[in-house]
Automatic annotation (TrEMBL), chain A:
Coiled coil: none annotated. It holds the Pfam family Transket_pyr. The keyword Electron transport does not apply. This is Alpha-ketoacid dehydrogenase subunit beta. It comes from Psychromarinibacter sediminicola. Residues 4-179 form the Transketolase-like pyrimidine-binding domain. One of its GO terms (molecular function) is oxidoreductase activity. It comes from the Bacteria. InterPro entries: THDP-binding, Transketo_C/PFOR_II, Transketolase-like_Pyr-bd, Transketolase_C. Its cofactor is thiamine diphosphate. Keywords: Oxidoreductase, Thiamine pyrophosphate. The keyword Disulfide bond does not apply.
From TrEMBL, chain B:
The pyruvate dehydrogenase complex catalyzes the overall conversion of pyruvate to acetyl-CoA and CO(2). It contains multiple copies of three enzymatic components: pyruvate dehydrogenase (E1), dihydrolipoamide acetyltransferase (E2) and lipoamide dehydrogenase (E3). Keywords: Oxidoreductase, Thiamine pyrophosphate. It catalyses: N(6)-[(R)-lipoyl]-L-lysyl-[protein] + pyruvate + H(+) = N(6)-[(R)-S(8)-acetyldihydrolipoyl]-L-lysyl-[protein] + CO2. The keyword Oxidoreductase applies. This is Thiamine pyrophosphate-dependent dehydrogenase E1 component subunit alpha. It comes from Psychromarinibacter sediminicola. PANTHER family: PYRUVATE DEHYDROGENASE E1 COMPONENT SUBUNIT ALPHA, PYRUVATE DEHYDROGENASE E1 COMPONENT, ALPHA SUBUNIT BACTERIAL AND ORGANELLAR.
Length: 331, 325
């Protein structure tokens, strides 16, 4: 099968959906000729024109608000939010407006929009361009949240998001845009709420989101050398979350580590760990462990920044201790 | 009064709609005072000529976005008393199945995209609706209602900029009732509100918001021009709210005097003024008007009784409509 980058996969998904449905359009800062700073959208304005690939002023609340209104009245906007950190700027439009319209109207209004944005530290971009804020939007009923872990997922999840009748936020890891993966030429969609077992194992379950799937897979390789069989699971969407696949795995392995690049406290790892504790408690041989980013603003210095995110080595170390029956106390 | 529509039926419908709003609000206020209504509500009384003058210039395909003080917009855009009172009382037959209440009534069949409880919160939605119309080659117009208080929100300046850049068919209708919640507008607004819209190159108008014909005449002209791609436009409608910020805001002399309220009610009431004009022009007799008023009162009384007796939504609806299929 051919291999393409995550960036190309997102681009293909948008182009295919824009050809299929003329109500789909893209809105955001530097999305047209510039194709975004990450060049994810390069070429789309040439095919679809500036009427459907629309450059906006630097007005995040404004253009997200426009997308909500366009979605409520018959269009399917895909908003490009240049950095995930800017979600804080658009919270009212996203959480008070987009997320609640369907419910507040008793099911009459719908907001079929996609907010594409990114996440991920270690790009030396410091505290306001490195955050992974998926937990903040996953907390809000009415929003769906997808976290692709490869080019394959990025394409299939994007196509599903565009066809979904709800506001969907997609977090792409900005350090993965050039990572290649096999992606079929023929069309496919990835349903929301279906986790993928990336690797089967029997001793411990490693649940990773986005780029943390690769971290988990590297850890699983190393653990295999030590005779520890790790199962790796990618939830793919955290809202809706495929509890069943996660629980089936943990009931089998009796141990789990949940890895996500958002801050650890009150985060995605905490939510998933709680669900496993509540629903698989009697199958567990050790506490479910959370591994998120450190609870510090992301520092600029590489010497410090690299300390803040989960790494394969730290996953291996924690897995070894859990499987060895060592007591682990949270700090 | 400025002359606008020439059809007698149109004049009578405008009068009827204004009285329907006032009557709806009087009944809503009674529901609050008699502790029959959950929560609070914000009265539109005094501002009827704004909503009616504007909405009578629009079609069902045209959209509006409304505000926390939104009952007037809802009635003026074609909503029915029964579904509205049911919504205010949290009943299943309400426009939003009781999930929205007073501050979130939406009636998409008549183009009402909903009231919004965030001040200025629907400015993006209205402008996005206009963007959709332009992208899809439709000729509908969107009117964005908001108050003078909302002009202090940054969102307005972001969306006006885009609306002006892209010539979107949106009309920003600022209902300047002189008060930003419990504070005089003079104390929260520097300079001129009109000049702010004009700074974006947006054609702006100020109009007497107590004169329904003047409002209607201006809006019809601007709506037709917006359909032809000459938008956006801004209208500042000078008006007054008879009640406090909400129904519970009863002792308000610390921010405005009773004499001021009395003056607006006695000398500038939009319904009294229009009624006088209808009679003097021979369009309707006093008897005909009284009959219309009585009929509306009866409609409202019946709708309130219906809503009071109507069922609450069943418990299983609490987690319905979080996500669309």
């Amino acid at each position: 099968m051919r291999e393409i980058t995550l960036s190309q996969a997102v681009n293909e998904a948008l182009a295919e959906e824009m050809r299929r449905d003329e109500t789909v359009f893209i809105l955001g800062e530097d999305v047209a000729e510039a194709g975004t700073p990450f060049k994810v959208l390069s070429g789309l304005v040439e095919e679809f024109g500036t009427g459907r690939v629309i450059d906006t002023p630097i007005s995040e609340p404004g253009f997200v608000g426009l997308a909500v209104g366009a979605a409520m009245t018959g269009a399917r906007p895909v908003v490009d939010l240049m950095f995930g950190d800017f979600i804080y700027l658009v919270m009212d439009q996203l959480c008070n407006q987009a997320a609640k319209q369907h419910y507040m109207s008793g099911g009459k209004l719908t907001v079929p929009m996609v907010l594409r944005t990114n996440m991920g530290a270690t790009r030396r971009s410091a505290a306001q361009h490195s955050q992974s804020l998926q937990a903040i939007v996953a907390h809000i009923p009415g929003l769906k949240v997808a976290m692709p872990s490869s080019a394959y997922e990025a394409k299939g999840l994007m196509k599903t998001a565009i066809r979904d009748n709800n506001p969907v936020v997609i977090f792409e890891d900005k350090l993965m845009y050039q990572d290649k993966a096999p992606v079929p030429e023929e069309e496919y969609l990835i349903p929301f709420g279906e986790a993928k077992v990336k690797r089967e194992g029997s001793d411990i379950t490693l649940i990773g989101t986005s780029s943390m799937v690769q971290i988990a897979e590297k850890a699983a390789d190393a653990l295999a050398g030590e005779g520890i069989s790790a199962e790796v699971i990618d939830p793919r969407t955290i809202v809706p979350l495929d509890d069943k696949t996660l629980l089936d795995s943990v009931r089998k392995t009796s141990r789990a580590i949940v890895i996500d690049e958002g801050h650890q406290s009150y985060g995605v790892t905490a939510e998933i760990a709680s669900r496993l504790n509540e629903k698989a408690f009697y199958h567990l041989d050790a506490p479910v462990l959370r591994m998120g980013a450190m609870d510090v603003p992301v520092p600029f210095s590489p010497a410090l920044e690299d300390l803040t995110v989960p790494t394969p080595d730290r996953v291996v170390e924690n897995a070894r201790r859990l499987c060895g029956g060592e007591m682990i106390h949270a700090a | 009064m400025a002359k606008a529509k020439t059809n007698t039926e149109d004049y009578l419908r405008m009068y009827r709609q204004m009285v329907r709003i006032r009557t709806f609000e009087d009944n809503a206020n009674q529901l609050y005072l008699s502790a029959k209504m959950p929560g609070l509500t914000h009265m539109y009384s005094g501002e009827e000529a704004v909503a009616v003058g504007i909405c009578e210039a629009l079609t069902d395909d045209d959209r509006i976005t409304s505000t926390h003080r939104g009952h007037g917009h809802c009635v003026a855009k074609g909503a029915e008393f029964r579904e509205m009172f049911c919504e205010l009382l949290g009943k299943a037959e309400g426009y939003c199945r009781g999930k929205g209440g007073s501050m979130h009534i939406a009636d998409q069949n008549h183009g009402n995209l909903g009231a919004n409880a965030i001040v200025g919160g629907s400015m993006g939605i209205a402008t996005g609706s206009a963007l959709r119309a332009k992208l899809q080659g439709k000729d509908d117009v969107t009117v964005c209602f908001f108050g003078d208080g909302a002009t202090a929100q940054g969102l307005w300046y972001e969306v006006m900029n885009m609306a002006a850049l892209w010539k979107l068919p949106v009309i920003y209708a600022c209902e300047n009732n002189g008060y930003s919640e419990y504070t005089k507008t003079d104390e929260i607004a520097a300079g001129s509100i009109m000049a702010r819209a004009e700074a974006f190159g947006i054609e702006s108008h100020q109009v007497d918001g107590q004169d329904v014909l003047a409002v209607n005449d201006l809006t019809r002209k601007l709506a037709e021009r917006a359909r032809k791609g000459e938008g956006p436009f801004f209208i500042e409608l000078m008006t007054y709210r008879y009640h406090g910020h909400h129904v519970g805001d009863i002792n308000r002399e610390y921010y405005r005097s009773k004499d001021e309220e009395k003056d607006w009610k006695e000398n500038r009431d939009p319904i009294i003024r229009f009624r006088g004009w209808l009679v003097s022009e021979g369009i309707a007799s006093e008897d005909e008007i009284e009959a219309m008023n009585a009929e509306i009162e009866t409609d409202a009384t019946e709708a309130v009784a219906y809503a009071e007796a109507a069922a609450y939504p069943p418990a299983e609806e609490v987690d319905m409509h979080v996500y669309a299929d």
